[in-house]
Each structure stands twice: as structure tokens, then as C-alpha cells.
Amino acid sequence: DAGVIQSPRHEVTEMGQEVTLRCKPISGHNSLFWYRQTMMRGLELLIYFNNNVPIDDSGMPEDRFSAKMPNASFSTLKIQPSEPRDSAVYFCASSLGGAGDTQYFGPGTRLTVL
Amino acid sequence: AQKITQTQPGMFVQEKEAVTLDCTYDTSDQSYGLFWYKQPSSGEMIFLIYQGSYDEQNATEGRYSLNFQKARKSANLVISASQLGDSAMYFCAMRIRLDTNAGKSTFGDGTTLTVKP
Fold first, then answer.
1. How far apart, in whole angstroms, are the C-alpha atoms of residue A97 and residue A28?
2. Closest of B11, B30, B19 to residue B99, by C-alpha
3. Which of A63, B15, B30, B98 is most open to solvent, judged by the fewest CB atoms within 10 Å of its CB?
4. Does the CB of B44 have a partner CB in chain A at under 8 Å?
5. How many Å apart are CA A21 and CA B83, to the nearest integer?
């Protein structure tokens, strides 16, 4: 079975540019999560969706960040405009949902904003 | 608010020996789950083991076991017969309100485990 798929795996961009990260969750999973990992702040939950609906976006840093899940098999995380402090590894994870669900992580996207 | 504490930034263990990675948690919710993930140097996050707050027995998965002490709010990971490939960062995580689909997840800061040959 295919795991969580993220693209691109690496992204280097210049400050001010728009960045779009993509995620395809595991088929049949009802919940999708976006995380950011940095040395300074560790692993932070940015937003999560259940049945394509955003449940909690309180972890989204600021208005420059937005996330969408137009259908059960695709989600995007967009940063516009990007800043150097956005440099991090961004993980997408999915889970079946409900009690005791385990989150399965994608390989991550390493974002570098120059 | 819920919190996960991993007090050991780094741990060393000799190959083939057992090692315990500590995790304590804080939540007022009665329904929650505790998870351990492994992150090797390649960067991916790998699920290892899960323990539910209502589970009476400690979870085990191969060489991994979870020492769950509910009264002390601890969920330590025990790795038996350590292998060189176990060298990685290990994260403890908690998800609350498991009886709904709105549960939040919280991760600890991680413990770096180094297995010596």
C-alpha cells in the first residue's frame, strides 16, 4: 500500500515568493494533518482536517499560511509570501480517524527560503 | 492544555542491551492515546507503538513495549535487544479526546538515542 505522499521533497525559494506544498493521504483515511518541524520549535501541528473539513487551524502561524483539502485524496499548504523564518521541514500525516487512530507521516518537504 | 515531557535529550545504549526512553504527560482528559514515533537521520517519522488510556495491559510491538503508568502519567518506551539501526530521534506524542474526531495531538521534544557497537 502506498503511504502518505508529499511533493516536492525539497523546495528552495526566495523570500516573497509563493510556496505550495502538496499531500496525498493514505486512501481511506479520514483525517489529515500538517506539521512543521524546526530545531528551535520541534514538531508543531499547524492544522488538521477531518473528512476534508478544517477542524483546528490554531497552529497556523499567521495569515501568510493557508491550507485546503478540496477532496479526500489531496491537500495543499500554501505560504504567501514566504519568509526565511518559514524554512523548516513540513510533514503531512493522515489517520483513519476515531479512537486510537495512529498518524502515518509522509516523507516531509524540506523548505528553504533564502 | 496538554503537555508531553521527554526529559532525556540524548541517550546511549550498548548494542543488544535494553533501553528505556522516558515520557510523562499532562492532560485533564480521560480519553487519550499515547504514541511513540521514530525519526532516523533520513528524516521520516515512523510509528512504533500506541497505548490507549483505557487499555489495561501495556502495549507491545516486537522489540518495543510501552510501560504505561496511568497514575504517574508516564508512558515510557522500552526497546529490547538494541540494534545499530535503532539509533534515531524518538518522539512521544499524545492525542486527547479520542472519543471525538476533534482530538488534538501534542508531541514531546524528542530523545536522541545512540546505539554503540
1. 10
2. B30
3. A63
4. yes
5. 35
Cell 480519553: give the residue: B31
Sign of CA dihedral B91, A46, A35, A53: positive
Residue of A nearest to B110 (CA): A42
- Give B17-47 pLDDT, tens digit per residue: 999 999 999 988 888 889 999 999 999 999 9
Task: Write out the three cell numbers for B12.
Answer: 546511549
Which tens digits make up the pLDDT trace of A64-85? 999 999 999 999 999 999 999 9
Q: Can you count the helices (H) and strands (E) in chain B?
A: 0, 12
- Cβ–Cβ below 8 Å for B104 and A56: yes
Q: State residue A57's pLDDT score.
A: 86
- Can you tell me the distance from the alpha carbon of A91 to that of A103, in angstroms, rounded to the nearest whole number? 11
CB contact under 8 A, A104 and B99: no
